[in-house]
Structure formats: structure tokens, C-alpha cells
Write a structure and sequence with these properties.
Blueprint: H1 2-8, H2 11-31, H3 35-54
Length: about 55
């Protein structure tokens, strides 16, 4: 079962998963009044999302 999951996990999917986690943290940071940290996480998440688009 673990082998099947690891075979489907590509570099592009890892970047997308990482950007989802970062965006979730950014939303949580903005809601807890950490505005600058939240916006920094949004920029970082956007970077990884664009990087996943460049992967083939």
C-alpha cells in the first residue's frame, strides 16, 4: 500500500501539497492577527504553487 502512494507522489504533487499546507497556515495566521506573517506565508505559498506549474 505504501509503495502505491509513493509511486503516485511526484515532485509536482509535493509542491502542491506544500502550498496547500502553507496557505492553510497563512489563513490561520491572518485570523490570529499575525498580519505580516500571514502575508509572508501567502507569498511563499504562491511561490510553491507557481513552481509546481513549472514541473513536468
Amino acid at each position: 500500500m505504501g509503495d502505491i502512494i509513493m509511486k503516485k507522489l511526484t515532485k509536482r504533487n509535493c509542491y502542491q501539497l506544500l502550498s496547500i499546507i502553507i496557505f492553510s497556515g497563512a489563513i490561520l495566521a491572518v485570523f490570529t492577527q499575525n498580519i505580516f506573517f500571514g502575508y509572508a506565508l501567502i507569498v511563499l505559498g504562491y511561490y510553491f504553487l507557481r513552481k509546481s506549474d513549472l514541473e513536468v
